[in-house]
Amino acid sequence: QVKSCHLSAALLGEDSEISQEQLYELLKYAALGKCHNAAQPSWCRVYHQSHLAGVVVVVLHEMSQLHFYRFYLQFKHLRRMFRHRFTLAPSANFPLSLYGEGTNLKPQNTPQGLTSTSSECITKSSDLQCDPIIQRYGEKKQGLTSYTLTLEEQKKNDYPIEGSPGCKGYISTECDQQRTDSSPLFGLDCEMCLTAKGNEVTRVSLVDARGQCLLNELVKPESTVVNYRTRFSGITRKMLLPVKTRLSDIQTRLKKMLPHDAVLVGHSLNSDLQALEMIHPSVIDTSLLFARSEGRRFKLKFLAKAVLGKEIQCEQKLGHDATEDARAALELAQFFIEQGPTKVAELNLEMLLTAEKLAEVSQNKAVLQPQGCGFQEQLNEPPPLSKPCFLDCLQVTGQKPLLLGRQGLDSSGLCQSNLSTSNKQILQRALEDVPLSKFSIIQFSLGPEYLASHLHAGLHEKVSSKLTDMLTIYAGPFEENFCMKSVKKEFGRCGPIQSFTVVTETFQPYVCIQYEVLEAAQLAVECLNGAEVAGSCIKVQRPVTAAMLDCNVLIKELELDVENQGVIYVAGLKKSLTETDLQEKFSQLKDLETLFLPKDLQSGKHRNCCFLKFQKTQSAVDALEAINGWTMKGSELRSRNALAPGHLWKWIWQMNHSNGKQGKHIFYEKMEQLSDSEQDLRKKVKKLDQHIKKLYRSLQNNTLCVVLFPGVN
Q1: Which helix (H) or strand (E) element contains residue 473?
Q2: For labeling, which of 108, 189, 413, 439 is most exposed (least CB within 10 Å)?
Q3: What residues have CB less than 8 Å from 686, skipping those under 6 apart?
Q4: How many CB atoms lie within 10 A of CB 197?
C-alpha cells in the first residue's frame, strides 16, 4: 500500500500470485528509482517514484497466508488498511535473501569482502589514482571556490534553487556577491521534527569561521508535531512549549547575519536549507566533499572522528548538538581546503570505515552469540557470498537501510540494525527511526513457542477444515425418490460444484454439496433456503460445528474486505459462452473495469461463473440490481458481492484438490474448548495487528509499505 498515493496493480484471478523476483522489482524501483537505473516493475506500476517518502517492509517472521486466514478476524486493521494483496510464490531462504548477503558476512572476512565496490582500488596509500576524491578534485591544493557546489550539482542533490517549482515561497539570503577564495565560511546545522506538514525546523545553529556560535535558537513549528525525534534532535515537547520564535523570524535573522559573499558549510546541507525554506547560492557540502564511489556518503560522526579526531553525536547525550555538528562540518571543510585532496585521500577513509565496522561486528557478535537465533544458525544452506543481494543495491543511495527485529538480522554493520526483546520495543524503535530512513525492514514475531512445526500443522488442518465447511451446504429434506439431476442443476446455477453426495443417515434424504468458490455456497444459502426444489420445500444450511459458529461474521467481514470493494460474483453462465460473449453482454454496465473468468486449473475449461470489478463501488451496487434476473442463452443469472479475492480462490482450489475431501460432515459436533495456546495466539495476533496499525499511521504520506507473511520455506 502506498499511503495517500497510488499504486496500480492487477487484482483479479491468476495475476494474484507474484514471485520473489517480482517483489524485488517493486522494492528496488521504489527505493532507487530511475536515477539509479532501476526499472518500473513488470507486474504493477508506481506513479511519481521520486515523490516517495520512503519504503517500509514489515516482515511477520515465519507467518504465512495460513496464519492470515486462520486469524482473519483478528487482523482487523491489516485487512482494512492494505488494499493490494498477493500470494507470494514459495522460495528457499526468502527472509535471508531479503535481508541480504550481509547476514552471512563474518568478522574474519577481508575488507574487500565487506566493501568490494569502494575499497578494491585503494590497496596502497601511495597509489591514489583510483580514489574518488582525487578523481573529482585532482591532486593539487585549491581555494575554497573550487569546492563549492555548481548550480547543476545543487540541482542534482536537491538543493533549493531560485525559480524551481518546489521552492515557491522560499526566502533568498540575498548573498549575491561574487565569491573569492577569501570569502567567509559559516557552519550551519538544523534539527528537525516530523509534523503534519513534513520536516520542520526546531533548532538552528550558525557558527563563524573561528567556530564561534553566532546563533543557537529553538524554533516553534507551524504545524502539529507528529514525532519530536528526541533521540536524534534532543528536542522535547516541554522544550518547545515556551518558544515564541517562528521560522520567519529565523529567516530574517539569517539574512541580516550573513555577509553578501558568505559561503555556507554543512553536512547534507540541502536538508537544512529545505527545512529553513531558504535559498543560498554558495555552499560546501561535506557529505559530497569527502567523495566516495557510487554516490555513497560518509556520516558526519565518522568523518569528525577519522579526520578531526573528535567524538560527536555521543550516545550518552540526548540527541545531536546542532552547534557541535555545524562546527564539525566547518572544521572538516577547513581541513580539506588547507590540506588539499592528496592529504585527505592518504587518510584512506574507506579502510578506516571498514576497520570501524569490523570492530562493531565483533562487539555485536559477542552480544548476539548467546542468543543463538541469528539467521545463519537457523538456515542450514547459506547462499554463496559472491551473489549480489538486495540490500547491496541500496548501498548506492548513501544511506543505511534500517533493520529492526528480534533476530540478528544484519551482522555486517552495513545496516542500522537493532536487536529488541519484544514486539512492543520494536514498535517503539520503529516509530522513532523509520521516519529518518529511506528504506526500513521491521520484523515482528509471535515467538518460537507459537511457530513450532506441530502447531503449524495443526493450523493448516483447522484452516483447511473451516474453508471446506464454508464451501459446503446441506439441503433437504427431499422426497424418497427425488430427481438428483434436477437438484444438482438447480444448485449448480449458484456456481461450480466440487462434490455432490446424498446423505442417507437421516429419516428423509438430504444432499451435501461442496462448492469450489465461497460465493456459490453463500448464494445457495441466500437464494434456495426455503425455496421449492424437486417438489420439496427445503432448508439450506452450512454444517453446524464449533468452528462455524462465527461463519456469518466471517462472511460479512470478507464482503467488506477492501479487496472485494467494487467486485461482484455472477453465476449461472452456460459453459458454451465465451469470454467475448461475456464482454459484449456486460459492456453495458457502467464503470466496468475487469472481467475475470475462472478456469479449472487442471482441464483449463472455464467455470460457470465470473467476477466483475468496477471502478466505483456504487457502480457495482447498481450492477447487482441490474444483473439479478438477466438471462444469457436461456440461463438465468444470479449474483452477489464477491467474498474471495483471486489469491484466496486459487488457494482454496489447491487445498480442495490436495486434500481430496468429499464434503462428508457430521451434522452436529461436540463443542470443543479452544486450547490455551490458541487463545493466547489469538491475543498475540490481535496485538500484532494493533502494532501494524500504529506503525502505518505514523508513516509519512507517500510511503510504500509492504507487509510480508514469508512462511517457513
Answers
A1: strand 472-476
A2: 108
A3: 74, 76
A4: 11
CA distance 705 to 696: 8
CA distance 568 to 570: 7
Confidence of residue 385 (pLDDT cuts 50, 70, 90): very low
CA nearest neighbour of 347 among 309, 311, 312: 309
pLDDT higher for 123 or 10? Answer: 10
Instruction: Determine the 3-state secondary structure of 209 from DSSP.
Output: coil
If you average pLDDT over residues 625-652, what whole number do you get?
81
Residue with cell 444469457: 632
Residues facing residue 88 across a β-bridge:
18
Topology agreement, domain 459-551 and domain 565-642: yes
Give tens-digit pLDDT for 349-367.
887 887 776 666 555 544 4
Question: Burial code of 449-483, b = ≥16 C-beta within 10 A, e = fewer?
Answer: ebbeeebbeebeeebbbbbbbbbbbbbbbbeeebe
Q: Looking at the whole model, is its pTM more than 0.70?
A: no
Residue in the block written with cell 525546523: 201
Amino acid at 656: N
What is the per-residue pLDDT across 542-557, written as a single tens digit (0 to 9) for each? 998 888 888 999 999 9
Pairwise CA distance, residues 64 & 713, whole Å = 10
Residues in the chain: 713
DSSP 382: P
Give residues with Cβ within 8 angstroms of 180, minimum separation 6. 143, 145, 261
Q: Which fold has domain 565-642?
A: Alpha-Beta Plaits (3.30.70)
CATH assignment of 459-551, among 3.40.190.10, 3.40.309.10, 3.30.70.330, 1.10.540.10: 3.30.70.330
Collapsed DSSP state (helix, strand, coil) of residue 504: coil
CATH number of 142-339: 3.30.420.10
Strand blocks (E) in 352-465: 402-405, 416-419, 439-444
Instruction: Tell me whether the omega of the peptide bond preceding residue 477 falls within 30 degrees of 0, making it cis.
Output: yes
Residue 540 C-alpha from the chain's centroid: 43
